[in-house]
Amino acid sequence: MFLELIIKGFIVGIAFIIPGVSGGTLAVYLGIYKKLLDSIGNIFTDFKNSMKFLIPFAIGGVISVLGLAKLFGILIEWNSYIVLMFFIGLLAGGLKHIYLKSQVKSLHLPSLISGGLAFMLLLLVIIIDKTKSTEGIEYFNLVFTDYLIIIGLGIVGATTMIIPGISGSAMLMVLGFYTAIVTNVIGNVLNFDNLSYNLRVLVFFALGIFIGIILFSKLISFLLDKYPKQTYFAILGFIIASIIGVFLEIKDPNSNVSFENQKPIYQDLWTYISENPWIVIIGLTLLVLGYISSQYLTKIELKGSQNES
């Protein structure tokens, strides 16, 4: 169980460094979402049992984020189409599973409204991200206000971990702090030349994450218990919108060396397809593999739930 939770934490941690992918979504697909919320929400009332779950999960997540941030940064700059198509398949493959968890058997207007509002809300965030003209910052000055901003970013990051379908990395991009947090700090945490700077940013970012998780886990857990149909449909709406968001993050590596300066393929999709037929085929193959992987994960989760009951 300990090793299994480390592995699941590792998988969920990957989502934090992939633009558009949600850790909460992967937690649902892995069958640990409700347990994660309960462990966080009961950390002060049932500390021992909460830690039995959270410690191995956190170990896996930390290993994933610190160990893979640099690698995925390199891979995404090399060819984001190939990398992100797999994750689009992964997200799409679990949609039926989320629908089944909602237990909606027929037309249920409150659930449809909940899902529609969630979809439109996240789509609005994505549109703002794609149309904003301001560039993000690369480094903090680490004055008092910067520390408050970093804590606030941690709280935002925590909500994206708790709410399936909302990507922490995408939200950091929208706010203009993705490079400052993920690329230059998490991706270079072992760069001893900037160790003091990196540690200070990480400590305050982690503090914000802790505060945010404690605040929002109780709320989401309450909604899942009291309004499961509406909540799961909201999750569906978030995930469908996030699939659109991930696709819009795909860029043409031939347009620039840096991922941030590369041209999005949606701006001239047909030209990209016609000039890169083999890359497109590889990406579509990975899309299918991601879909199959998600189906496999959700079947394992369903089997585990049946065994528990």
From TrEMBL:
Residue ranges crossing the lipid bilayer per the database entry: 6-32, 53-72, 78-95, 107-128, 140-163, 170-190, 202-224, 231-250, 278-297
Domain of life where this protein originates: Bacteria
UniProt key word Manganese: no
Pfam families attached to this UniProt entry: VCA0040-like
Assigned keywords, A-Z: Membrane, Transmembrane, Transmembrane helix
Name of this protein: DUF368 domain-containing protein
